[in-house]
Amino acid sequence: MSTAILNSGFFNSQEHLNEEGISLYTDALILGKKEELPSEILDHVENCQLCKNKIIELYGICKDNSLYNTVTHPYFHEAIKQQFNYSILYKIAASVLILVSIVLITKFLFRNQKKEIIISEEQCDSSSVKHDKIISDSIGSDQKEDSEHDHIYIAANFNSNPVFESLIDESLRSDNILKIISPQTDQQFSLNKSIKFKWESESIENLKIIILNNRADRIIEIEDIIGNNATYNKELKPGLYYWKLESEDDLLYLGKFIVK
Amino acid sequence: MKDIILLYKNPGKLVEKYQNTIEIIINKFIQSGFIKYTDKDDFKQDINEQLLIKIPKIQKQYNQKCYLHTYLSAIIRNIILEKIRKNKSFNEANNSAVHSDQIIYNNAINNLTITDEIERFRTVLILFNKQKEKLELCLKFIFRLPITEQDIFQYFENLKKADLKINFHKLNDEENLTDSDIYSILTGIINAKENKSNTPDAIRKWIKSKLNEIIGLMNGNPKRANYDKSSLELLIEKYFNKKERKISIQEM
Question: Is A259 helix (H, G, I), strand (E, B) or coil?
Fold first, then answer.
């Protein structure tokens, strides 16, 4: 089984579905959304009698609960919302693309006109600095439009996660034994910049850091940390991230930071 | 307050809120004969204690990808199974085989149980995912249930009607049709659909292994029933009767 599948958060180290994977499949059966399950889960269960049995037993326990008709599902609702957002995003992106093209063509024509004027000014011994400035202004403006275009795509990555938000800065078991130095809540990091995690603690060892995106997908786990700090060097996409600091038994801290 | 918030902020309150769920799950085990009614309170107390102990682990491992209710139900079920194992109640649980035989053969008495068993069988088939339609067709063939064009097209969606060269009269002629005939026809359909050249013997082995898997899933682990090939055949017959009735009602 590939590392990506194991890191999906639905499988245990024995390469079977974990409790969350079993529960997700059970929810899918109850809600009639089996086809929306990740293919790695469907394929695994198709060929695994052990997981099939766990799902059937759990389905038998949960199927009659009225909760399932009333409460929004955290995974399937998110999947539907994302599909919806993407379709709108594609439409907006297409419109923006057309607009940007029109603006670029207009600017190109306009710039050529300006160049002609400047050239004629140069011919009249005007300063060449002015020419450089216009060109650089024009490039700067193009980059700004591209950047706005990208921002539409990544805006969804900055939406806050209501459940995590309600737990940020809440008192956890670690309050008396742990003090977080960095990253501070909402600290911003530039792209390609490493993220340094640092805390003060005297008694806790063998900690683990988990970085999650705003949809609660696990991005990375940093295990077996020695000392009171760790650094994440790989690139993270722009967005809002949450991070958990865990000991072997407890969730010690939940924080968040932003990559821009 | 939402359960997920309680999980982190007030786990004691969450466990308190789940008393009804705990009771429902224990009752399911009592109905299956795994727990004696007199042990109910003991189990309830143990589950509460174990849940509170496991809260930090749950806080860590639950990633909000499924309902917290389902997740906690899975944990509660595991706690019960663990306690049953510790109590060495399996010997008592094995006596439920008698009870399960009654489920199958006294079906006229308890239609509700039969409905539950058919529902379980339906769920088992769904879990076979892409193999479901193939499996349904094979089961109909080997248990010699009436086969219609619709059965073939349900499995082989893209088959053109002109290419369906099956003599249904011969196929449903129970008296003259041999097992060899059945596997030969079935192999032809499966090979055409999958573009393979399986032998009838390979198909027979595949069906046998799937049938054993279905029997295992219907019996459960820990064992909740005592299905064998013949009792499963009765259930499958009822499943297809019910399914076809449902289809014909929808078509009306």
Answer: strand
Count CB-CB contacts under 10 A for residue A43. Answer: 14
DSSP B64: S
CA distance A201 to chain B (A): 19
CA distance B74 to chain A (A): 6
Q: What's the token pair of residue A94?
A: 């297409």
Q: Look at residue B82 in the predicted model and tell me its pLDDT.
A: 92
One-letter amino acid identity for A1? M
Q: Which of A23, A175, A223, A253 is the best mutation test for B, with the most CBs of B within 10 A?
A: A23
Interface test with A, best of B127, B212, B219 (most A CBs within 10 A): B127
The domains found in chain A, sorted by start residue, are 3-91 (no CATH), 162-259 (2.60.40.1220)
C-alpha closest to that of A79 among A138, A124, A27: A27
| Predicted complex ipTM | 0.84
H/E segment holding residue A164? helix A162-167
Residue B2's alpha-carbon distances to A78, B14, B53, B60, B99, in angstroms, are: 18, 9, 21, 18, 41
B221 touches chain A (CB under 8 A): yes
Mean pLDDT is lowest, of A250-254, B196-200, B209-213, for: A250-254
- Taking the C-alpha atoms of residue A227 and residue A229, their distance in angstroms, rounded to an integer, is 6
Tell me if chain A has a CB within 8 Å of the CB of B94: no
- Judged by CB atoms closer than 8 Å, whether chains meet at A23 and B71 is answered as yes
Question: Could you read off the pLDDT of B68-90 as tens digits, one per residue?
Answer: 999 999 999 999 999 988 886 55
Between the alpha carbon of residue B34 and those of residues A41, B92, B99, B246, the distances in Å are: 30, 7, 12, 34
